Amino acid sequence: MVHRSVETASREELRTHQTERLQETVRNAYESVPFYREKFEEMGLTPDDIERIDDVQKLPFTTKEDFRDNYPTEMFAVDMDDVVRIHASSGTTGKPKIVSYTQDDLDVWSDAIARCLVAAGLDSDDVVQNAYGYGLFTGGLGLHQGVEELGATVIPIGGGQTQRQVEMLEDLESDALACTPSYALYLAETAAEMGVDIRDLPLRLVIFGAEPCTEPMREEIEERLGVTGVDIYGLSEIVGPGVSVECLEQDGLHVWEDRFYPEVVDPQTGEPVEEGEEGELVLTTLSKDALPVLRYRTGDLTTLNYDTCDCGRTAVRMDNITGRADDLLIVRGVNVYPSEIESVVLEFDEVAPHYRIDLRRDDNLDTLELTVELEEGFDGSTDDVREKILNRLSNVLSFTPDELTLVESGGIARTEVGKVQRVYDHRGQ
């Protein structure tokens, strides 16, 4: 594992380290990946033009379309003989994005996740129940190998089997649970139906990722499971989970920027934004051999904070993802992100942390229908709750749905495996 000295290095020390690794990465991409070599030649750029870390802004962007256009292996920088593992990102349309790892890449990944676990308060004595899906998805195996790198105990239960998950939490006295935020809440509901109060178990930490998690959603997780909830971030194109994580200060996610260089740009222009301003996260790998990636446009919206954290780490912190540039909903000229709607709705105690958004088109006009689930045991006035939610949405977001439906507890379908779907777009049907 990388020593804490890397995570507390001065900005000058870190920049020197980043420059060396960026130069190595750029040369590898240029010499070994035809896609990047063509991009460089079009821009009149050579690896010798990258003299310091700030020169990263000279490099071309990489997009998810580039991965799909070069499917399956044209983005690889090594021969298949040197690849020891393949993963693929999930996608709603077209081919998945295929990613590859050498053994050195897997070692870097394992180290990054182990560092995440330490920042979240775990050590080699802990038991981690891994409820992320195993297989082509990077979450399951990624977390698994990081726990092993830490020297802790991993329970590779994978996704689903929720009643068995609860039994394992009881019988093996797991210290930590790794899963999506929506699944953490579903597990708490299932446990209650089984007559088990998770808050009475030794479980003290939930490491959630793979879905955006607003602050109200985190509070629900912490209250219902009696745990501390920390966010872990990553994406397959860069490495998988382990790019960044919250420490126990819960004040932004530390990016391991000796391995992954972050920028924030304007989603429309691609130009860098001012420090602390929200924009699209762009990441460059600094330590990957099989799949070097330059300035990948993640689509995730966040900010960067370079102040030293109260935990002592100097690694830059990214804010929790507030939404995606491509998730922006534009309904009759009003711009709104699903995460913004969630933050408002979950302010109310009468509401459970489950909702769905349906987009439709009526006589060439876009409409948005919002369905919200009521808290279990609710016996008040639904009209009063509806009015409060509508007023709050109007005051905070200058937006009200065309229709707001309140359903009883359990009225919105749960997801046991994979990412929860919140938005259903019917406009093209």
From TrEMBL:
Q: Which UniProt keywords apply?
A: Ligase, Nucleotide-binding
Q: Which residues are in the AMP-dependent ligase C-terminal domain? A: 333-427
Domain (AMP-dependent synthetase/ligase) spans 59-283
Could you give a GO molecular-function term held by this entry? nucleotide binding
| Listed pathway(s) | Aromatic compound metabolism
- PROSITE patterns in the record: AMP_BINDING (PS00455)
What is the top-level taxon of the source organism? Archaea
What InterPro entries would the database entry show?
Answer: AMP-bd_C_sf, AMP-binding_CS, AMP-dep_Lig_C, AMP-dep_synth/lig_dom, ANL_N_sf, PA_CoA_ligase
TM segment ranges: none
What GO biological process terms does the UniProt entry carry, in alphabetical order? phenylacetate catabolic process
Q: Which NCBIfam families match?
A: paak_haloarch
Q: How does it assemble?
A: Monomer.
PANTHER family in alphabetical order: BLR5969 PROTEIN (PTHR43845)
Q: What's the protein name?
A: Phenylacetate--CoA ligase
Organism of origin = Halogeometricum borinquense
Query: Lineage in the entry?
Result: Archaea, Methanobacteriati, Methanobacteriota, Stenosarchaea group, Halobacteria
